[in-house]
Amino acid sequence: MLRLIRLGLVIVLALILVVIAIANRDTVVVQLLPSDLSGIFALNFEVPLFVLMVILGGGGFALGFSWEYLREWSIRAEARRAKKAAQSLEREIKSMKAEQGVEEDDVLALLK
């Protein structure tokens, strides 16, 4: 059921994007430098507006994803350190139990 809902949403999103692309298929001139410098470096492109919208939207998404990834770097590093510490402590507990010859819980041993 969830797969059908997801497929339906993807189809609706694709239709919306197609309609937007059809409505914005006129070409626009993109100047990468101000007009004063355009004589030196002619960096002018004519592209359909929907292509420009997709490129800028994807670039914004990539920039936001990269920003969040770098912002959360310290949180992930701390989680890795905590996981390594927990694994180290678990190994130490197992080795101490093996040294003492105690394989079961002390409380359970008292109940027997």
Short description:
The chain has 112 residues and is mostly helical. Helices cover 71% and strands 9% of the residues.
Q: How many DSSP E strands?
A: 2
Instruction: Encode the helix/strand succession as letters.
Output: HEEHHH
Number of helices: 4
- Average pLDDT reading: 88
Percent strand = 5-15%
Provide the low-confidence segments as ranges. none
Assign the structural class, choosing from mainly alpha, mainly beta, alpha/beta, alpha+beta, or little secondary structure: mainly alpha
Largest sheet: 2 strands, antiparallel
Largest sheet strand order: 1-2
First-last Cα distance = 51 Å
Radius of gyration: 30 Å
Shape, principal axes of CA atoms: elongated
Helix amount:
over 70%
Can you give a write-up of this model?
The chain is mainly alpha-helical and 112 residues long. Helix content is 71%, strand content 9%. It contains 4 helices and 2 strands. It has a two-stranded antiparallel sheet with strand order 1-2. The mean pLDDT is 88.
Chain-wise SSE layout:
Elements: H1 2-23, E1 27-31, E2 44-48, H2 49-71, H3 73-100, H4 106-111
Antiparallel strand pairs: 1-2
Descriptors for this entry?
2 strands, 71% helix, mainly alpha, 112 residues
